[in-house]
Design brief:
By secondary structure, this protein is α/β, with parallel strands linked by helices. The protein has a domain of 228 residues: Alpha-Beta Barrel (TIM Barrel). It is built from 13 helices and 17 strands. The protein starts with a helix and ends in a 10-residue tail after the last strand.
């Protein structure tokens, strides 16, 4: 049983610890933390009161990133249908749409259902519905949202879709997924791709939209000219497919693909829309590929997302323990924001490490450190929300959604 005396004693200890920390959020009523978030009251909420590890978004850099991609798309005349597998956030998708995105791209049917259910139109699901569960859900979503699209790369799946759509008395919008350098998906280009497209086009309950060709291998090729060459090679088969389609009189509405790494190349290779995703946040894998003006650093988009972690223990020289461990997706290729002298390591499921060699350097117990993660897709999948920051001040919270267990995928 909690007595008044024990309650006051606990409060005194908390106040003393806050006073020792001497940080901007001192005095913040942590007991009200979740209730304040629920009613969107962020007064006095600063980074130092956040539970860690936590994902923090620098709003200024984030807004600059999404505006740059939107402006580029308008300038070069290519549509933007950004991928949500990176952020899994309705809030972000709606901000992208407000800047001109024609829809979003999703990796799972759960993401597609989430985005469509939130009112986002023009959702493109990039996997074919090869299981009864996915097929039923794709048909159901088509009936609810006629702007929804998905892909197939196999004539057999096209038959399944036609049969299911006929039974539901609906018509599905479908693109043919063609090979673009990655063996995971995509029908062979040329005659096989054309025949699949013609099959889709002639189906009574399918509307053929065009092609999807995702050159994922080019996305992280280092060096701009090397990346341009790789992209052209991976999409060379697509050019043959498009030529045959034109000669056959097939109407191709979209040619979808592209990535953050090739966004300023993809127009050259006949794409009509971009599926870029990582540009909203950026990760260390992308930061290392080099840009058009600098092969060493990719600076087109800034690092707007970091993982906030706390120094939990420091009992050994030149190393401290943090709460950013294996379950939070810590990797040795992560980078510490503003502290290039630190390297990231792991010590277990809930234990991370920060190491250094310079004897003149040190970290303090309880210190907060921000880390750029290596791979956005996997890292964001481990967290429930983004804390949105202007400087040290938290100004909003955006849920990370569409990432549940198998039944929700």
């Amino acid at each position: 049983m909690t007595t008044r005396r024990s309650f006051l004693a606990a409060g005194s200890l908390l106040a003393a610890s806050v006073a020792r920390a001497g940080k901007p959020g001192s005095g913040y009523p942590y007991s009200e933390f979740e209730s304040r978030i629920a009613r969107r009251d962020f007064r006095g909420m600063t980074k130092d009161v956040l539970p860690t590890p936590a994902m923090v978004v620098d709003l200024e850099i984030f807004e600059r990133n999404i505006r740059h991609m939107a402006d580029h798309s308008k300038t070069v005349g290519i549509e933007l249908r950004p991928h949500v597998k990176v952020h899994k956030s309705v809030d972000i998708a709606k901000r992208q749409a407000a800047l001109g995105a024609i829809g979003v791209t999703t990796a799972t049917i759960a993401e597609a259902e989430l985005m469509s259910g939130a009112g986002v139109k023009g959702v493109l699901w990039t996997k074919q519905p090869a299981s009864p569960n996915n097929l039923a859900r794709a048909i159901a979503l088509t009936r609810k949202d006629p702007s929804f699209m998905f892909v197939v790369d196999d004539p057999l799946v096209a038959d399944w879709v036609e049969e299911a759509a006929s039974a539901a008395n609906t018509k599905c919008r479908v693109a043919a997924s063609v090979y673009a350098g990655m063996v995971r998906q995509g029908i062979e280009n040329g005659q096989p791709a054309l025949e699949l497209a013609q099959k889709l086009s002639s189906s009574k309950h399918i509307a053929f939209e065009g092609y999807m060709a995702y050159s994922g291998g080019a996305a992280h090729t280092k060096g701009f000219e090397s990346r341009r060459k790789k992209s052209a090679e991976d999409l060379s088969g697509l050019q043959k497919t498009l030529e045959l389609s034109r000669k056959s009189g097939l109407n191709v509405n979209i040619v979808s693909g592209g990535s953050t790494g090739t966004y300023n190349i993809d127009k050259e290779n006949s794409l009509t829309e971009l599926e870029c995703g990582s540009y909203v946040f950026m990760d260390t894998a992308y930061m290392a590929i080099g840009g058009k003006s600098d092969d060493a650093v990719y600076s087109d988009f800034g690092g707007s997302l970091s993982v906030l972690t706390t120094v939990d223990s420091k009992r050994h020289p030149n190393v401290v323990t943090t709460d950013y461990g294996n379950k939070a997706m810590a990797k040795p290729t992560d980078k510490v924001k503003g502290m290039p002298w630190l390297s990231v390591g792991t010590q277990g499921a809930e234990y991370g490490a920060l190491k250094w060699t310079d004897a003149d350097r040190d970290l303090k117990l309880g210190q907060r450190v921000e880390i750029y993660c290596t791979n956005l897709d996997t890292s964001t999948n481990c967290y429930d929300r983004y804390y949105i920051a202007r400087g040290e001040q938290i100004v909003d919270v955006w849920p990370i959604m569409g990432r549940g267990g198998s039944a929700q995928r």
